[in-house]
# Entry
Amino acid sequence: MRRIFLPILLALTVSCSTTKLAVPERFSSQATRYPVKGLQGWMINQHLKFGNYTTSRIKRGWGVMSNVRYNNIPMPPQDILSQIFGLETMQAGKNEKAKIRYTLTNAHNSAEIFGIETYNSENIVVNARQIPVIGGEYTTLLNSSYLYKAAIVPTDTSGTGIWSMVMARNYDVSRDTARRIFDASYIDEIGYATNGRDTIKIRPLNLNTFEAKSGKVSQTWLGIKVLSGYELSTADGVVGIIDTIDEAMWFYNEQEEKQQFILAAMGCAIFLKQIEKL
# Structure
């Protein structure tokens, strides 16, 4: 089945009251948009809803056992992630900053999702108290690393298996080519989800164009690129768009229901990230 390839997938839409991504018609005409509810307001008893999908209460931290069982024995979330990502990988991630856990369901599918974010950085601090114009301290980032790992464990793994999702960003000042004040910093980024057989790539959409409410497309101020969402693609082409600006998901219509469910689980995991750093 042929997918749609989009060289420049989206344009950022910005206005005083509405901010969204303008999806090209050649994709939107063959896809369905799902606005995501539950991302604003109080995070206590938070649930996400979109289309016929709904999540359980989003739990921050892992204080209880999971419903996932191995040999009929319930396993804690950290052990599940260790099984999926490998013990060595988990041992390296002891400085976790945030954890999430929830269940996603629709009429025919259900899965537990566990996520963990880690962020580490090294800074140089210059004490500028003797310079009245500056004053205080000046901090420069030398390097940083961000890692988000999520496990998607369907209730019925037949045909889909268990999925692992990884999103990583690394910055090293020695490799940074940005010289002017508004230049984009050089950042190594990688993102994907896999069940060991199939792979879905995650590409961040850093865009410098926007569409006004009138429909006019323009550049952002000084051409600054803004992280506006994520493109999900297989070897056949784009299958989904995660619009973090307008809080919506787009799914290509001509795909199996179980694959779309995995895309929905990935989208929820992306929306629920808590650490957004360089």
